[in-house]
Amino acid sequence: MLYRETGDFKSSYAADQQTFPIRSERYLFWGAMVIAFLVVPFFINDYWEKSVLVPLLVWSMAALGLNILTGYCGQVSLGTGGFMAVGAYACYKLMTAFPDLNIFIVVILSGGVTAFVGMLFGLPSLRIKGFYLAVATLAAQFFLVWLFNKVPWFYNYSASGQITAPERTIFGIAVTGASAPPWATYLFCLTLVFLFAWIARNLTRGTLGRSWMAIRDMDIAAEIIGVQPLKAKISAFAVSSFYIGVAGALYFSVWLGAVEPTEAFGINVSFLVLFMVIIGGLGSILGSFLGAAFLTLMPVLLKNVMVGGLGWPTDLAAHFEIMLVGGLIVFFLIVEPHGLAQLWRLAKEKLRLWPFPY
Amino acid sequence: MNQHIDPGSLRADDGIEKGGMLLHVDNISLSFGGVKAISDVSFDIKKGEIRAIIGPNGAGKTSMLNVINGFYHPQEGTITFRGEKRRRMKPHAAASQGIARTFQNIALFKGMTTLDNIMTGRMTLMHGNLLTQALWVGPAQREELAHRETVEKIIDFLEIEHIRKTPVGRLPYGLQKRVELGRALAADPALLLLDEPMAGMNLEEKEDMSRFVLDVNQQFGTTVALIEHDMGVVMDLSDRVVVLDYGRKIGDGTPDEVRNNQNVIDAYLGVSHD
Question: pTM score, two decimals?
Answer without folding.
Answer: 0.90
